[in-house]
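Hi everyone,

Forwarding the result from last night's run.
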Amino acid sequence: MGPQFWHEQWQLNHIGFHQAKVHPMLSEHWPVLGLAAGQVFVPLCGKSLDMAWLRSQGHTILGVELSPLAVADFFKEQALDVSTRSAEGFDWYENDGFQLLCGDFFHLEPRHLEKVAVVYDRAALIAMPPQLQIRYAEHLLHLLPHRPPILIITFEYVEEEMEGPPFSVSDQRINELFGHVYSIGTLSAVDALELQPGLKGRGLNWLAEKMHYLHVID
């Protein structure tokens, strides 16, 4: 499942993964974390409305996304003009505190994320099959030697019932990927089957959605 797959999903408008509202776990838990205003990194950001919500809370946004259609749509739907430039292997779309890099997440280097204060993974890890999840986690940690906190939203289900994406990510899996560096807590866990009729229609009988908080204890 490479870049071409995701380009085709956007070209065909097969974007059931895009949510038409801000994720409720984000709006509920973000304020109580007490995270200072700063740059939030959103990997595989698509055109998520969560970015606009985070910006409204005083944060600036750094996103990375493969699809130029998704990036262009974000600025259009936010009624924002956009300046563009090409540099360092990415097309940079910028305005009003948003900086979205169109290109491959795995081509990012630590210098691109030097100012990142928080990472918000809404749909990156669950978009990847297990072997690619390992590469993703390793690269993300490589990009963040200063170890900012990370929020990750996951789905968990019986893997035999459905072929991803989205892929099932258990608590154990989160610990395997990040537990050697971060302390991991679960901020929220809900029965999400009725909230995700598209996934229920693909054969799931049980679906949990969780928000994990990864942070380094001083």
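The CA atoms of residues 64 and 71 lie 9 Å apart.

Cheers,
N.
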